Protein 1
Amino acid sequence: MIDSEAAELLTRAAAFDNRTIGEADATAWAAALHDLPCDNDTLQAVARFYSAPAAPGETGRRWIEPHHVRTHRAAIRSERLGTTIPAYEPPAEPESGSEFTRRRRAQLTAIADGRLTPVPVQQLTGGPHSRVARALEGVGDMPADDQPYMPADFRESIGMAAAPPELRIPCPKDGCRALARQPCKTPRGHRRATPHQARTDAARGAA
């Protein structure tokens, strides 16, 4: 923003607060808002400041300052972007990373300016690729009863004791009811070092 543009902005503010404007005022405001253009959003920021409802306890005449312009202008532009990330519009030809960055920034700027209507990111539809679907088959499935999690020959090869025969069946004791291949538990839910006697007896009867 240059001095002449700042003078235009101050003229808009003077319509609301009847301030007097001099060259020094325009120079000071141009320095404070040097990185902002005097565009429609900047002018609308002045109108928004004076049209906002009075805050609790607010009395007297309002007096806009440069930081008010900056804050309201940013809010106006953020509202155009919306609360969701706008979808990216890719070019017809492949682009590099730096080209994507420049194009993305240009699109977001155009949306904030009001020159481009944002399109929300669409929800992905359809299932995974057939190769991915095949790779996921069986993931999370429990092994069958005749396929223990750790085969006996593997347990023996690493020096682990064989699984107790009681673990082949669920525990019938009330308060435990541990599933097959799961250790019995105490009334407080802790793991027992040995199966319940009822489970041992049931395993002997099933043998």
Protein 2
Amino acid sequence: MFAPFTDDALEPQLSVADMAALRDLLGDAIQPHQAIAMLDLGHHRSRLLISEGEGGHPQPVFHHMTLGLDLLATRTFREHMPTEAQLEHGIMLVEDAVMPMAHLIPPSNVFVTRDPYLLEVGQQALGVRDVTAAWKTTGRLPVLSREAVEAQFELLARQAAHPHLPQGDLPQSPRWAAALLFLREILHHWQLGAVRLLPEKAH
């Protein structure tokens, strides 16, 4: 389903050739039969891309959620780190957006993102300064597990309960908090164990 308006924060439409290049980049992290699932967070909406593997349809199909970072960071969190009540409200908003899309996730897939806000979440959780540099150094794409995301979310929830007491080196950015919340709920409700972090210009 294509959305009726554009969001400049979302990546341009991707082609079959882009998907083939992405499979080459993933290397042995993806099997020929596995689908690619890619998440982008926009300002006003967010997008899930699905490209099926061998025996399926490699042409990317785009599914849109009518929830973006602006609604969470600006309206719900009011441009500050969230309070406990704001975080609970944010959880409900994200759940309402992501749960109806859970059935779209192929049973065998590799979940990836190159969304800049999600990369920031991953870099913080993994203690990696730069995803692209880490990839070039090791030759492998960084993998952010659901457990690592949960650990960051626990810190965020602890701070939300005591808003004037920042937790460790947790970034004090409402958009970072919104992206973390998005990713946490998606990994949980789409039953995904991890997300692979792509260099921002991998295609």
Protein 3
Amino acid sequence: MKRLLLSFLFTVAFGSCAFEVGEDELCFVGDSITYLWDLEYYFPNYITHKHAVSGAGLKQLDSWDVSDCKGRTTILLIGTNDIGYWKSTADGIERLREDYKDRFIKSAKRIGGKPMLIVSILPRNEWGKQDPLVNENIRAQNGVLRRSLKDIPDWEFVDVFDLFLDKGLQIREDLFKDGLHPNDEGYEILSRQIQGVL
């Protein structure tokens, strides 16, 4: 009888929070924004794997060994180093956006995460010296990615762009350290949005 009661209590106490195999692990892939993200602090209930390098873009990502992400919930946040200087008025910008979208999808598929949470490219104003037209282009590129990814099974686009934006395509300075990397409050917002879809 004691054994049955202990078994019942253990099930009640721990059964509702037990993870399936692999569900308690998250894989984060990205550039310096991901590299500086304190995953142990913001995701304490998960084992996290991080593949992130400052200055990285899709070209660098394609050379990384991310095999430990295969079949795991993967959060991909990359792109600011690839398109962070494009302006919406650039010649051939529509073609550039489509080409980038195709390269992005190819790189993300190679990771093999399941599910894949694709985080929108954040707005930026690095050191207060960038033209707001850069953010107009980032918003448009996020739109291209959102529309293209919605039909891919087990992929979800997590759009945080507007949460980091102020009026007139200016960034919310209170959420960034240097106009590019989030500060603690920025990472708190980012983490809450991810936790909301896990």
Protein 4
Amino acid sequence: MTESHVASSVEAAALALDRLEQSLRVGGFAEGTTAYQRMADVLLAQRLFPGDDSAGPETDPSVLRGFEHIGETSGRIYGLLEPYAAVMRRLAALAPAAPGDAGPTARSVGPAAPAEPGVTAAPAVTEAACATVLAALRRRGRRGASVSVLCRTTGLPSGVAEAALDALVGDGTACTRDAGGVRSFLLRDTRGARG
């Protein structure tokens, strides 16, 4: 590829991504996240733990159809958004961690290379992933969180969350607790905390 072709490609991609970001921001995409998270919490609780009222999904077929419609629509929306999120996750690796950093690997906390030939490499752990998991563990306090809870609350893929947890446990920031066959993680300084 010629240098001018690469420059044109980079310029066009930057313009397209800037437009996409601007349209999402103008449309309130970022601000809507909290409302949709609350909506999901409420609807899932209503569906999984129906109350004593007679309009539950077991007694009202229209309510059950409503839940099914929400699930189908949400699945279609997820199908539209997930490929974009996957692409953006890949492209985010191009950003340096701080001004002056040389390239995408500057953000890595640990190596992503396999330990031996034929072994699949673990996802690279970024400072951002560790910070995200650390913030979630701080919010959870002494309750701690399992990998699945952290994935739900942070939006991180399980491999990334697990790699971040390994880094946090490895440096002594977090520790593990096994309770009832479930492994959870919590910050070291909250282990003995009361609250």
